[in-house]
Write a structure and sequence with these properties.
Layout lengths: L16 E4 L4 E4 L2 E2 H7 L2 H10 L5 H12 L6 H8 L7 H15 L8 H19 L10 H9 L6 H14 L6 H10 L5 H12 L7 H10 L7 H10 L17 H11 L5 H17 L5 H11 L7 H22 L18
Antiparallel strand pairs: 1-2, 2-3
This protein binds s-citryldethia Coenzyme A (SDX).
């Protein structure tokens, strides 16, 4: 008997991430992800996921210097990105950038895995910046690079810190759809670029990564708190799927949503946050549905003056680390991923 959507099916092993269970907390290699977000840079969490331990001060200094050397972009890649239409989908821009880089810097025995993962972590925000006619300094941190690429206002330290925390919260999440797509691609011994393109294409869908943009439109559809309860109840009566709510694994809370709520609480107040809180209250009361990571990131990125069509790209800038770490883990103990299907078609026909 097949499980629709592979719900509750254990499809493999990982040492990278644990989520759900009784506590419904999120752990990266045993460390609580929300606590990592309090103390560490995104680069330090990338080091933990990719190399297996929290870096020492010397190690993180050396790693940061190594990343600065990876910021150059091949001329032809930059030229193509500049020429892409302004109204292109940001996910298509990123997927194209990864594909192009794979043509000019193909993976081989000398240039593989971890180096490409670091290169993509550094270049993906810069790809988006180039497409938007912006430029990122070589020594910018990943969070600074994302803010420069995406924010349409001056970048300040408070927002860079909030971005750093949101990237850590997006970084890794076990066998979610886009990560599993990357593992399936890697299990055929395909290259890192193809695995990341599979992941970007998968994350593009609104049931997975594209929900944060739709969540903002939902929140902004209400002018005031008083109109929220009736509006949400009507949407539920109409059987609408409200983006930013529900999760296949978490049932009582998404710890990342709670963390994002506290980050927003520490920022200047906005009416949008109040409306979002009211929507969350009603969704829990009426459908026992939790807000997921895409709900409050929508409120945070709106407050950072980021256009909604760029929200899912930020998900990529964080999750590139999880995807890459899973590709490396799959390669280290590989077997082709090929499940069975339950046949429901016609009997053999002469
Ligand atoms: C992430 O997998 C991961 O780890 C993902 C992620 C990650 O970090 O990679 O955590 C990323 O969490 C963002 C998810 C962003 N997507 C959305 O917010 C889209 C809206 N959410 C739903 O589509 C849904 O909740 C899913 C896709 C997230 C989960 O889908 P499931 O587990 O297949 O649940 P389901 O669709 O079978 O729903 C079960 C019930 C249904 O009611 P009934 O038909 O049984 O009466 O709950 C209802 C659904 O109608 N329901 C919703 C709802 N989500 C579930 N009803 C209204 N709005 C919703 N959002």
């Amino acid at each position: 008997m097949s499980q629709k959507g592979l719900a509750n099916v254990t499809a493999g092993e990982t040492a990278l991430c644990k989520l759900g269970g009784k506590s419904e907390e999120l752990y990266y290699r045993g460390y609580n992800a929300c606590k990592l977000a309090d103390k560490y840079s995104f680069e330090a969490v990338a080091f933990l996921l990719l190399k297996g331990h929290v870096p020492s001060d010397d190690e993180i200094s050396a790693y940061t210097e190594e990343l600065v050397l990876l910021t150059d972009i091949p001329f032809d890649v930059e030229k193509t990105l500049r020429g892409l239409p302004e109204d292109a989908n940001a996910m298509d821009v990123l997927r194209t950038g990864v594909s192009l880089l794979g043509i000019f810097e193909p993976e081989n025995d000398d240039y593989h895995g971890l180096v490409i993962a670091n290169r993509l972590m550094v270049l993906l925000p810069r790809f988006l910046a180039i497409w938007r006619g912006k430029s990122v300094p070589k020594n910018a941190s990943i969070a600074e690079a994302v803010c420069i690429a995406c924010c349409d206002s001056d970048v300040d330290d408070v927002f860079v810190d909030a971005m750093n925390q949101s990237l850590i919260l997006y970084a890794e999440h076990e066998f979610n759809a886009s990560t599993f797509a990357a593992r399936v691609t890697s299990a055929t011994l395909s290259d890192m670029y193809s695995a990341i393109c599979s992941a970007i294409g998968t994350l593009r869908g609104p049931l997975h990564g594209g929900a944060n943009e739709q969540a903002l439109y939902l929140i902004k559809s209400f002018d005031n708190i008083a109109s929220v309860e009736e509006g949400i109840k009507q949407k539920l009566i109409n059987k609408e799927k409200l983006m930013g709510f529900g999760h296949r694994v978490y049932k009582t809370k998404d710890p990342r949503s709670h963390k994002l709520y506290s980050i927003l609480d520490s920022l200047p107040h906005t009416d949008l946050f109040d409306i979002a809180k009211e929507i969350e209250r009603i969704m829990m009361d009426e459908k026992q549905l939790i807000s997921n990571v895409d709900f409050y990131t929508a409120v945070l990125y709106e407050q950072m003056n980021i256009k909604p069509n760029l929200f899912v790209a930020i998900f990529v800038f964080g999750r590139i680390i999880g995807w890459s770490a899973h590709v490396l883990e799959q390669r280290a103990n590989n077997r082709l991923i090929r499940p069975l299907a339950e046949y429901i078609g016609p009997d053999p026909i002469d």
